[in-house]
Amino acid sequence: MSVNKKLGKCPFCDDGYIEVRRIEVNAKPTKLYACSNAHWEFEHDMCELSTQSSCSYRIFANQFLQWNKKSIGENEIRTVLEEEQVKIRLYSSRVKKEYYKWAILDKEYGLSIVWDIDIQEDDK
Ligand SMILES: [Zn+2]
């Protein structure tokens, strides 16, 4: 039996860990960072939480694709689980420039971007 890599404690339940799962969405391989108490079932591009799940938290690695971030990395997930925020690099195809934003934990959406705070690459 293979054990999934654990990246940190689930922020939304008592005993869950966020683990890395490899999935396919629209026939493209990507990663899902999901709570060990969240059992997601995938069919085509639909996903559904199974009835044994006691938590629903998950982050899709490609959830910021529309802002040209192809994949959220495991280190970024570790950071956001520890510090509740992580700096992410996005890319504007309109002005052809990269920019940085904070991403924070979001129970429903996995992570969400803090749009109204501008940050620089070297801000901590
Ligand atoms: Zn959980």
Overall description:
The chain is mainly beta and about 120 residues long. About 10% of the residues lie in helices and about 50% in strands. It has 1 helix and 9 strands. The strands form 3 sheets. It has a 4-stranded antiparallel β-sheet, with helices on one face. Strands 7-8-9 form a 3-stranded antiparallel β-sheet. The longest helix is centred in the middle third of the chain and has 10 residues, at about 75-85. The protein is globular. It starts with 5 loop residues before the first strand and ends in a 5-residue tail after the last strand. The model has no long low-confidence stretch (mean pLDDT about 90).
Order of helices and strands: EEEEEEHEEE
Biggest sheet, in brief? 4 strands, antiparallel
Radius of gyration: 15 Å
Poorly predicted ranges: none
Question: Could you give the order of strands across the largest sheet?
Answer: 1-2-3-6
Overall number of strands:
9
- Identify the bound ligands: zinc ion
Instruction: Specify the overall morphology.
Output: globular
List the total number of helices.
1
Strand content: over 45%
How much helix, percentage-wise, in residues? under 10%
Mean pLDDT: 91
The N- to C-terminal Cα distance equals 40 Å
Specify the structural class: mainly beta
